[in-house]
Design goal:
2 copies of one chain form a homodimer.
Chain A (H helix, E strand, L loop, with lengths): L4 E5 L3 H13 L4 E5 L12 H6 L13 H7 L3 E3 L2 E7 L2 E6 L2 E6 L2 E4 L3 E3 L12 E3 L3 H11 L4 E5 L3 H12 L3 E6 L10 H13 L3 E4 L3 E5 L6 E4 L3 E3 L2 E4 L3 E3 L2 H6 L22 E3 L6 E3 L4 E3 L4 H15 L13 E5 L2 E7 L2 H6 L4 E9 L10 E9 L5 E8 L2 H13 L4 H6 L14 H13 L1
Parallel strand pairs in A: 1-2, 1-7, 2-3, 7-18, 9-16, 10-11, 10-16, 11-12
Antiparallel strand pairs in A: 4-5, 5-6, 8-17, 13-14, 14-15, 19-20, 21-22, 22-25, 23-24, 24-25
Helix pairs in contact in A: 1-8
Chain lengths: ~450, ~450
């Protein structure tokens, strides 16, 4: 009898977590990972900081070198190897170490997401970059070496982090966002604080201004919008990602929420023996109660854990996410969890929104700063639907709200949450508790 | 018909929150507050930082001056006024503004806690201080002016914060704790990291060494234990507090958990029309499911809110606390929520404990540091029972765990909590999630 064989396509957080999990639970099984890029287990989220120079070498973005997986964990990892054919029970791959045909018993599709390249003229010029894998980072850092003035297209997490990092390097940055506000995962009223911070740090901000094309002869020389033509030395596209379902579709897997691979709570796809996890797969939104697609590394890690456990014969469900994300733009911390007011309305709730601004220390204690919170609740039930935070020390409030949202907590539960207090850390009335108190009053 | 009259005894967080709440809900009612000290709405937790000089003036520890309550909120506040007689429907008080007799319809006992003075010789010598009200702080700061070498008796929150602050002023500090470890609200294994930090910063630590007496002729000159006699210039007693139930007992109220005034979930005492809130009252521990006494400012604030609402005819329950507390000792942050392993065992659980040590940033991102967590779970049910944290950035993990404990979450819920991630803030596997993952494995 042939050794039981598991194939994992994609060596990102979901793939490597799942592969490690399978090998741990079934040490005698054959576990094969195919990864297109040169690296596995890498931190794509660190790319903006590599561009800015805060992270000096690409190797530092790799959590574990391939050798750890190969030698310590006994996983067959093939990097720079692309799966070229996929059918039930069989995968063919080609790469630097040769061609492989593997007969698999169980498959994990963990092919992640790929950058959206907007269908505008000039995107394939030299000097235009997208950022997803570490090789992109390397190319882009080289690209920036001679640059003085750079256009960043897209005002989401990556676009903002890249803008910050390029400013820190002393470059001129023009940030283009087609929507009226940056950071569309926040409501516009909260996003406007981020826009102030960007301008204060010299980012030339163009919101509500879609890029129509990139001009240049051979090399990008200018960005064109309805309002003007802006000469630049390089263009970084950060307009979003979509699930990389090409191989999943080759296999005939059903797609679900927002074009991601449909999975059940055990992360099984529509095909027997095939699982999907990470950015390629849909997830479940505990606040809306519906499938959703929220591609983020912690979710990918946990989906990998769940998929790997189930692939190896275990039994664990992925309970879903609430949509937590944070970032930092210059001196401003930004966090969100659950639904924004806009998302709540789209999901069919009648939302109540509360804004507060509070100090993160008692008045007499030095340090801390101002934290602005927007709490969104369901008018009908009093249920907490989401929290947005900008300012300082967002993490404790966002993490506590994430835990509350996980459990379907009400605003009253949020008020009574036993948040930590001591003068060096937080005021006796924590900002989250204050926001909940205001919401309680308004819900009456 | 006489105006409906509410009397609040005690102008601390619970009393002033309740008085404000009553006046807000019943603007026409008469609301009288009696406070023994010169200040209301003050932050006793700031006293250690006043002693250390970080807070320069006592006035800064007062959240709102009396005039705000009197003029803006229409509350009759009498400071430096002591209630000398209390019977159903009637209170007599004496103070700087005269003698008062008030016929009350509804009463709140919010007399707080008072420092335990150990029954040892010499505690009434000059140069021996306890810290509870702001006047204590003033006296103690004067006392320290000529001092070079100070004994702090008691290694709980106040004792540690005072030790840190006196060291920061350049004083020699001898810290005496009768138990084997400082900070008895943590397990000994976690407390030992605090002891290292104290020693590293030059605190002369005497654990397991009860103070038998204070020597001196008229003025404290030395502290005596079984192991020696230690010459000092001043002694600060911080051996704990107990509920100040003297007036409650005069009225004949029943006492409950750990000698605090017994209350139901609406904070009603055993007597019709009489409520209790804050440090004088018992609370409900959501983790053990039993009455408990955990005197802390955020709890007092919320109990005041609940008591005030119900006194004014509203209907709200206090759902209890999980026992969250944080502090900082030199460079070490310390947090805890729920039960320690020892407390879990005492409460009848069979606890599983997990220790982890994790970085609070991805390896490639600068900043952050090491956070040590001890997670305690119930072996039988997998329920999360508590979290202890020492190191850096304890707040997000303690606050998230507090929210989880509030909802009776399991270790698996903790693992799947959608904690925030971004390189400037936290690693993709948050330390809390790592601790939960290890606990999940051990629970199998």
């Amino acid at each position: 009898m042939a050794r039981e064989t598991f194939v994992v396509i994609g060596g990102g957080p979901a793939g490597m977590t799942a592969a490690s999990r399978v090998k741990r639970l079934k040490p005698d099984a054959r576990v094969v990972v195919f990864e297109r890029s040169r690296y596995v287990s890498y931190a794509a989220c660190g790319i903006p900081y590599y561009l800015g120079g805060l992270v000096d070498s690409l190797d530092r973005l790799v959590h574990y070198p391939v050798s750890v997986f190969r030698e310590k964990r006994g996983i067959e990892v093939y990097t720079e190897t692309e799966v070229v054919s996929l059918e039930p029970g069989r995968a063919e791959a080609r790469g630097k170490e040769g061609d492989f045909t593997v007969e698999w018993d169980t498959l994990l599709v963990a092919t992640g997401a790929r950058p959206v390249v907007p269908p505008i003229p000039g995107v394939d010029l030299d000097g235009v970059a997208t950022l997803r894998i570490l090789e992109d980072a390397e190319r882009t850092r080289k690209l920036l070496e001679g640059a003085r003035r750079v256009a960043v297209v897209g005002g989401g997490y990556i676009g903002l982090e890249v803008s910050e990092n390029l400013r820190e390097r002393g470059l001129e940055v023009l940030l283009f966002e087609m929507l009226p506000h940056v950071m569309p995962t926040l409501d516009g009223d909260m996003a406007s604080y981020i826009e102030e911070e960007l301008r204060r740090h010299g980012v030339e901000l163009h919101t509500g201004e879609p890029v129509r094309g990139i001009r240049g002869s051979g090399r990008a020389e200018a960005v064109e919008t309805d309002k003007g033509v802006y000469p630049v030395d390089a263009v970084i596209l950060a307009v979003g990602v979509r699930p990389d379902t090409r191989l999943a579709e080759m296999l005939g897997l059903e797609l679900g929420a927002r074009g991601a691979v449909r999975v059940d709570s055990k992360l099984r796809t529509s095909m027997e023996g095939v699982y999907a996890a990470g950015d390629v797969a849909e997830t479940f939104n505990r606040v809306t109660g519906k499938p959703d697609w929220i591609p983020l590394a912690p979710t990918a890690n946990k989906m990998g854990y769940v998929a790997g456990t189930n692939m190896a014969g275990g039994d664990i469900e992925f309970p879903g996410v609430v949509g937590t994300a944070v970032t930092k733009v210059f001196g401003l911390e930004i966090g969100r969890t659950g639904l924004t007011e806009k998302q709540a309305r789209e999901a069919g709730f009648e939302p109540l929104s509360v804004h507060i601004s509070a100090k993160t220390r008692p008045g007499y204690y030095p340090g801390g700063g101002v934290l602005r919170l927007k709490l969104v609740a369901d008018k009908a039930s009093g249920r907490l639907l989401g929290l947005q935070a900008v300012g300082v020390e967002v993490l404790p409030r966002i993490d506590a709200a994430a835990a509350l949202l996980y459990h379907g907590a009400t605003v009253k539960d949020a008020f009574f949450t036993d948040m930590a207090y001591a003068p060096p850390f937080a005021p006796a009335w924590d900002p989250l508790v204050i926001a909940a108190r205001v919401a309680m009053r308004k819900l009456k």
